[in-house]
Amino acid sequence: MSDHLPRTTELLEQMIAYPTISDQSNLDMIAALADLLDAAGARVDLFHDDTGAKANIFATLGPERDGGIVLSGHTDVVPVADQDWTTDPFLADLRDDRVYGRGSCDMKGFIAACVALAPSFASRVKDRPLHFAFTYDEETGCFGGQALIQSLRDKGLTPGLAIIGEPTSMRVIEGHKGCFEYSTHFHGLAGHGSAPDRGVNAVEYAARYVTRLLDLKDELRARAPASSRFDPPWTTINTGGLTGGVAHNVIPSAARVDWEMRPVQNSDADFVKQNLRDYCANVLLPAMQAVDPDARIDTEMIAEVTGLEPADANEARDIVLELTGGARPDLVAFGTEAGLFQHYGLSAVVCGPGSIEQAHKADEYVSLDQLSQCLDMLDRLGDRLSDRL
Question: CA 214 to CA 221: how far, in whole Å?
Fold first, then answer.
């Protein structure tokens, strides 16, 4: 077991005690992290959201320049309501060589390991900066991660690589699909069911929109990259809901389609969105507005989580494979903030302690063995930094 494990476990217990569910503030946890990183000698910046109730932290050891390494994690956790926990989810419970508690593996264990090693990193960092990036609202759409990237852009800073410590059982992950979620709203004209030509039936136009989604779903199969290792290898579309209408004999004036796509490549997302824009502008809206000029279609973006596309050249992947002794990189089905870093120009990899099988569930836990493996990886990274990686 790593010599840093007792301190990491202590910090993890403190982190679990902050109930940073996505609909609540994370400021107390961020303040505690800021104090710890400041004490280790890092330069600490906080970036608040528009409400002032949440913040990202971006802290740096070493020189302030491009090409640095980012250790990234999110501070928010999913709700515990209606889950059958055997212990208080926000009171860490150490038993059977596991730390139980909400966020223990997703992903406060990784954050605790990073912060526990910060003083050691401070004495070893030389020419290449090391950054700590801890965000808000990953679980609800990576909004904190998007804000973080904008903060880096505003600072004119582009690190070289990012290690995102989501729970992968310390497997090295080089790719995952994106997850883009939308609600498309149809605003028509109500009327009596006996005179359909005098109204604009929002449900019928929503149904035609769903039909177009189904067509695109089939078209995307042909766009699958020949080398795709995803399962399935193509971008998928799912229609999650169609709602509207008030009675059998009333032309419905409003309807909503909830849908998502999971792109294997960013170009597929652009293809789908442009196709739907053209379909609405050239087919649906002219027919709707021929009856009612005020009829409209609005698409609400719920979340756009950029995928992490496997790349032939990936410094982050290669370094973490060496640090962990991993035989080969893998892909996962769940989303992370890694694609945001990749899209900004960094090489990115996902590797962290704990299993996704425990995340989001009652009695979530991370094993001490997984934490120790993570600490060993980070300790080796510190050695590389001292050797002017």
Answer: 12
Dig out the tokens for 326 from the structure.
């991993």
Whole-model pTM: value is 0.89
The pLDDT assigned to 388 comes to 56
Q: Tell me if 117 sits within 8 A of 379, measured CB to CB.
A: yes
The encoded tokens of residue 342 equal 């990749």
Give the residue carrying structure tokens 């059958």. Answer: 84
Contact 132, 378 (CB under 8 A): no
Q: How far is CA 183 from CA 12, 93, 210, 261, 297, in A?
A: 37, 40, 12, 12, 11
* 231 or 217: which leads in pLDDT: 217
Q: Are 40 and 117 in contact (CB under 8 A)?
A: no
Of 131, 140, 183, which is closest to residue 337 (Cα–Cα)? 140
- Phi/psi for 26 (5° steps) reads -110, 10
First and final CA of the chain: distance in angstroms?
Answer: 25
In angstroms, the CA 226 to CA 174 distance is: 18
Active-site residue numbers? 76, 138
* Distant-in-sequence, close-in-space partners of 264: CB < 8 Å, separation ≥ 6: 177, 224, 225, 228, 230, 233, 234, 235, 307, 309
Specify whether the CB–CB gap between 343 and 169 falls below 8 A: no
**Nearest partner of 71 among 40, 102, 28, judged by Cα:** 40
Judge whether residue 277 has pLDDT over 60: yes
64 confidence band (pLDDT: 50, 70, 90): confident
Q: Please answer whether residues 123 and 100 qualify as being in contact, where contact means their C-beta atoms are separated by less than 8 angstroms.
A: no
Answer yes or no: are the C-beta atoms of 57 and 134 closer than 8 Å. yes
